[in-house]
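Collaborator request log, item 7. Partner lab (contact: R.S.) asked for a structural prediction of YitT family protein to inform their binding assays.
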Amino acid sequence: MSKLKIIIRYFIFTTGLFFMGLGISLTTKSNLGTSPINSLPYVLSMIFPFTVGQFTFLLSILFFLIEIIILRNNFPKEQFFQIFVCPFFGLFVDLGMNICSFINANIYIEKVLVLLSGCFVLAFGVYLQVIANVIINPGEGVVKTIAYKTGKKFGNIKIMFDSTLCILAVIISLFAFGNIKGVREGTIICAALVGSITKICSVIFEHFKYKYITSISIDKDYESN
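Returned to partner:
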């Protein structure tokens, strides 16, 4: 693969990370609950003097380490580049929160519209990372690793993984505030929609393949998302 193709792929991947951060921020600003992957960092950011992005960075590092612990010598060498994804992902989440700081949805229909916008943007970010086909976001990487080790379907492990993050967020929230913060109906909607929207993105953009991008199917990994 030529250096130019590699540069383009990593540019697409980084752009996907940006849209993921922006999508996560939009779902958070909907005030209907944030995305499952952001539920724990969001709750922790309300307790400790760190931003959502900083906790996202720390959680991504944890996911990366879990992958290495599980796979050990079988951990793909090229996936060590995931360590560079962690700070960028956290940075883009905080950047997204700043970009969306003007959003103040009060009416329920406004909240729903902001939430759906966030789901579409988040799904587009996931799609860009998939077609870039270089490295994996640690949040997805740890799910794939567990699925590989257990022999279970990616989609089923993804549901269990997201549910675990949400449960932890709920428990910590109840302990710290006496009520649930960050996890609401929007969290469930986001978990249900993003995978399906990602598939739709694949259909829409399949006619706009660039010669530097190898088109790959995402149905297998996201069939149960």
